[in-house]
Write a structure and sequence with these properties.
NAD, Aldehyde Dehydrogenase, Chain A, domain 2, 36% helix, 509 residues, globular, Ald_DH_CS_GLU, Aldehyde Dehydrogenase, Chain A, domain 1, 22 strands, aldehyde dehydrogenase (NAD(+)), EC 1.2.1.3, ALDH7A1-like
């Protein structure tokens, strides 16, 4: 396999032929070894941040913030614009790295980098739109308004499934808001983090920026603990499992810090009697098997009107038979590997549990073996009929496992969809306006994302991304999500020669 893209991204080869990612001067004797789920080969090693080095990073970031917050927001936007241009230059290489290190298809790898470029464009425009409000005062010759100030250091903890895009959602917005960032990438995809930091380092050098505006720390959960317990980091944005998110929320909340959480999803598509079947097949299939089922927005459940249940089941079964599973850098393939063998074991245990509770196999699963599958991480996307009360359908399994179940009334379908602990993404397939409006009403989907005639997966950067319940309640990316990275300040200015008190209170001396 041609790995020239590693060199382009500054991941230099050492004597044993592997690439060693180094970030600034923060290197230690301990390293994380990153093995590709595509072929099982060592991609490279990323230096693990020690406690002493972490302290150095935070001290440097604090100093950088004092400078960065004074730079006018449009000028901060110009730096982000240049980073977006650098991403355009390296889109192919970075997309290939994402695909090779994480295992998603190359189309999705390129798409993830495009998402980074898009959020840079969004942030550039935002840098001239950090609007406050003006209010009329009840006191004569007084003026009231509100403004927004940067928070300081924003800590970003990201997951392996989107190893670069989710960081950019947070970092590019935070940067134009005047914050500085410290990023802990997933230990399952550390080289992607190193590559992004290398690209940033060149932009910073070209603009004579101080070190510490964008910093990288690598390691396991211990590095995350340094961040979540650190009072110098007012905001922690964490993406991952609900279990992890509960720990982060409690830890950050205990010091009265702010947390922005993007956690698990258990997303459903309701397929009504009037649904367009072409839309159903494309939306449901990509949602279920894209990124090998390792998206927080992956489709886990199909809730199908009883009149069309057999049709949907049979057509989906046929579509599953046409999937091509293999090397994700080969654009002819639809599905790549799971991230590692631990995920494979979780997938296999889930299938056992589904069958044990009475789930009926439509398309069976299993691990693929033989030529091209030597890494042991390639599995078959699978599909099961279950009852609406299925315990397994209540849980998110980060793998390509899809459930199908019938319903009789739309109210019942919405109740089934909302019955799970998670509340990220949802969708309805219908050509009936009344059905779509009910789904979007206060009596409809309880998720942060609710779609009509598209699937659950593939959100655009212009809208706020996030969900409710055990998904964590956070919002990232578009709309007014920028407010999470700033502090609101209300200002009252008295330009009279007297000092009247609010609410008519008298305090005469």
């Amino acid at each position: 396999m041609n790995l020239d893209f590693l060199k382009e991204l500054g991941l230099a080869e050492d004597n044993d032929g592997t690439s060693t990612g180094q970030t600034s001067h923060h290197n230690s004797a301990e390293h994380i070894e990153s093995y590709s789920p595509v072929d099982g080969k060592l991609i490279g090693k990323a230096s693990v941040t020690t406690k002493e080095q972490y302290e150095d990073v935070i001290t440097t970031a604090e100093a950088a913030f004092k400078h960065w917050r004074t730079v006018p927001a449009p000028q901060r936007g110009e730096i982000v614009r240049q980073y977006g241009e650098a991403l355009r230059k390296h889109k192919d290489a970075l997309g290939r790295l994402v695909s090779y290190e994480m295992g998603k298809s190359l189309q999705e790898g390129w798409g993830e980098v495009q998402e980074m470029i898009d959020i840079c464009d969004f942030a550039v425009g935002l840098s001239r739109q950090l609007y406050g409000l003006t209010m009329h005062s009840e006191r004569p010759m007084h003026r009231m308004y509100e403004q927004w100030h940067p928070l300081g250091i924003v800590g970003i903890i990201s997951a392996f499934n989107f190893p670069v895009a989710v960081w950019s959602w947070n970092s590019m917005i935070a940067l134009v808001c005047g914050d500085v960032t410290v990023w802990k990438p997933s230990e399952k995809a550390p080289m992607c983090g190193v590559a992004c930091q290398n690209i940033w380092a060149q932009v910073a050098k070209d603009n004579d920026l101080p070190e510490g505006i964008s910093s990288l720390v690598n390691g396991d959960y211990k590095i995350g603990e340094y961040m979540t317990t650190d009072k110098r980091i007012p905001l922690i944005s964490a993406t991952g499992s609900t279990r992890m998110g509960k720990i982060v929320a409690q830890t950050v909340g205990a010091r009265l810090g702010k947390s922005l959480l993007e956690l698990g999803g258990n997303n459903a598509i309701i397929i009504t009697e009037s649904a367009d079947m072409d839309l159903v097949l494309t939306g449901a299939l990509f949602g279920a098997v894209g990124t090998c089922g390792q998206r927080c927005t992956s489709t886990r459940r199909l809730i199908v009107h009883e009149s069309r249940y057999a049709e949907v089941r049979d057509k989906m079964q046929k579509a599953y038979g046409q999937l091509r599973i293999g090397d994700p850098l080969d654009t002819n393939n639809h599905v790549g590997p799971l991230i590692d063998k631990d995920s494979v074991n979780t997938y296999l245990k889930a299938i056992e549990s589904i069958k044990a509770e009475g789930g009926k196999t439509v398309v069976d699963g299993g691990v693929l073996e033989g030529e091209g599958y030597e890494s042991g991480c390639y599995v078959k996307p699978c599909f099961f009929e279950v009852d609406k009360d299925s315990k397994m359908a209540q849980h998110e399994t980060f793998a390509p496992i899809l459930y199908i179940m019938p319903y009789s009334t739309l109210e019942e379908a919405i109740e089934i969809q909302n019955s799970v602990p998670q509340g990220l993404s949802s969708a309805i397939m219908t050509t009936n306006m009344r059905e779509s409006e009910l789904f979007l009403s206060t009596a409809g989907s309880d998720c942060g994302i609710a779609n009509v005639n598209i699937g659950t997966s593939g959100a655009e950067i212009g809208g706020a991304f996030g969900g409710e319940k055990e998904t964590g309640g956070g919002r990232e990316s578009g709309s007014d999500s920028w407010k999470a990275y700033m502090r609101r300040q209300t200002n009252t200015i008295n330009y009279s020669t007297t000092l009247p008190l609010a609410q008519g209170i008298k305090f005469d001396l």
